[in-house]
Amino acid sequence: MTEIIIADTKNHFLQIEKLANIIWREHYIPIVGKPQIDYMLDKYQSAGAIERQVAEGFEYFLMVYEETPVGYISVKKEDESLFLSKIYVLSSHRGKKIGKKAMLFIEAKAKDYQLKNIRLTVNINNTNAIKAYEKLGFINVGPLVTDIGNGFVMDDYQMAKTVV
C-alpha cells in the first residue's frame, strides 16, 4: 500500500535528501556524469535547498510504501500549469504501481488548483522516462536548455499534458 504524504518538516526534507542521493547517483551519473550530479544534489536536493524551494512555493511529498519512504514528488502551481518538478522512485520499488499512483495524485492536484495542464522537463537522454511520460499522455513540446551554473546545463525536453 502506497501513501503520499506532504513533506513539510526538516525530517521529511532529510529523508528526501537521502532518497535523492540514492536515486540520482544510480540513475543520472550515466546520463550527465558524477560532477554535475554532485553539484545538482547539493544545489537542488539538499535538505536546505528543499526548505528554500518550499518557501518559494514548491510542494514536496513523500511516497511511502509499507511504511518505508521510497520516493518523492515536487510540484509548483503556476498561472496556467502545474509544474511537475520532481517524481522519483527507488529502483528497488519500481513496478509496484507507485509511479502510477503518484501521477494520479499529481493530476488530482492540478484539478484541485483548477489548472488545465501539467508540465515537466526531462533530460533529452533519459529515454525510458520520456517513453513513460508519453505513455501517460504527455507531449514533447520542444527542447529547453538551462544554465544551472558552475559550467553545467540541463539539456531537457519540455513535456506537457492536458488534464481533463
UniProtKB/TrEMBL annotation:
Residue ranges constituting the N-acetyltransferase domain according to the UniProt record: 3-164
Pfam families, sorted: Acetyltransf_1
PROSITE patterns per record: GNAT
Keywords: Transferase
InterPro entries: Acyl_CoA_acyltransferase, GNAT_dom, N-term/lysine_N-AcTrnsfr
PANTHER family listed in its UniProt record: FAMILY ACETYLTRANSFERASE, PUTATIVE-RELATED, N-ALPHA-ACETYLTRANSFERASE
UniProt-recorded name of the protein: GNAT family N-acetyltransferase
The organism of origin for this protein: Flavivirga rizhaonensis
